[in-house]
Amino acid sequence: MNTFAKVMGAVTASFFLAGTAGAQTTLPGTGKTVHYAQDDSLGGNYVVAQITSQALKKLGYDVRLSTMDTTLFFQAVSQGDMDLATDVTLPQREPGFRAIAQQATLVGDGMIIGGGINGYLVDRKTAVANNITNLQQMKDPKIAGLFGSDGKAEMISCDPAWSCGVVVDYQLDKFGLKQTVKPIRGKYEALMADVVAKVRNGKPAFYYAWSPSWMTNALKPGSDVVWLPTPQDALPPDVPARGSALVKGVVGCAGGADPCRMAMGAWNYDTVANKQFLAGNPAVKALLEQIRFPLSTWSEWEGAISKEGGSVSVVKKLSDAWIASNQSQFDQWVATASKAR
C-alpha cells in the first residue's frame, strides 16, 4: 500500500471512529446521584417511589432513597441534603412548604389524578342503628357516648407528627365539638389496627382517615363504615383550600348525601424538589412533570399493601408489576425526560 493510501485509510478510520463516538449518547444522569425521600407513612406512595426510582435509574442516575417524616424532609431539601420527595400531602403541609419556598418548588400536578378525599368516619352498624348522618350530631352526649364514655367520643386522629391533626383540632373547635369529642393522637397505624378489630367485632369506632389509603381498603366506606359530612368548610388560616369541601360521588357518605362535605377539598401527594437541583437536572424535572396515576391504581396498591403487608418485597412486586403492565408509558416517560435541556 502506498503512502497516500495509508494516509487516506487513517483519515477514513478516524472519521468512522468519531462518528461512532458521537452516536453514543451519554445519559443525563451519568455520574450523578439523586437523594430521594419518602414519607414514613406507608402506602401507595412507596410504590410510586419505586417506579420513579426505576425511571431515574434508566436516565443514568444513582438513586439513594431515604425514609423520613415530611417535616425533616423540608429541612433537608431546603439545605440541599435531599433533592426531592413525591409524597408531600398538600394542602395539609402547606405551612411547612411555604417556609422553604425560596429553596424548593412544586413539580407537576400531583401524583393522584383528580386528588383524594379525607374526613371523619364511624362504623356503619352504629350509624344505621342510631341514624347518625353527619358529624354535627356528635354534639349530643348520647350520640358521642356511643363511641366512648361519659358522653364523650374517643376519635382516632392523626399521628402527632402529621399536620392533618392540626386540621382536626381546628375543626372540632370550629364545629363546637370539643366538649363531646376527644381526639386520640398516637402512632396512627397501631391505633387504626385496633379500630379495624373493633369494627370487625361489631363494636363502635370513630376515626379520621383519607382515601386512597390502606384504611379505606381494610374498612370499606358504604359496607363497613360511613363518612360523616361536616357542617361547613373550615380550615386553619394557614392551610389553603383547594376548592370546596363538597365532593360529588363519595362512596359511603352517611345518609346517602351527594355531594358529601368532607374535611376539606381534594388533597394530593405533591412533588417537592430543591430548586438548585432541578436547575442542574432538567431531565429529572421533565420526568416528574409526567408521572401521575389514576385513583383506581392507587386503590389497588393500597388494597394489596393492606392484605399482604408493607414489606420491601411487596412494594417491589407491586412496582415491578405496574411497570411490566405499562411498559410503553414508562418508556415514554423516560424518553421524553432524556430529551430535556
UniProtKB/TrEMBL annotation:
Keywords: Signal
Pfam families according to UniProt: OpuAC
Residues annotated as domain ABC-type glycine betaine transport system substrate-binding: 43-323
Signal peptide feature range: 1-23
Origin superkingdom: Bacteria
The UniProt record lists the keyword Signal: yes
InterPro entries: ABC_Gly_betaine_transp_sub-bd (IPR007210)
Protein name: Glycine betaine/L-proline ABC transporter substrate-binding protein ProX
Organism: Paraburkholderia phenoliruptrix
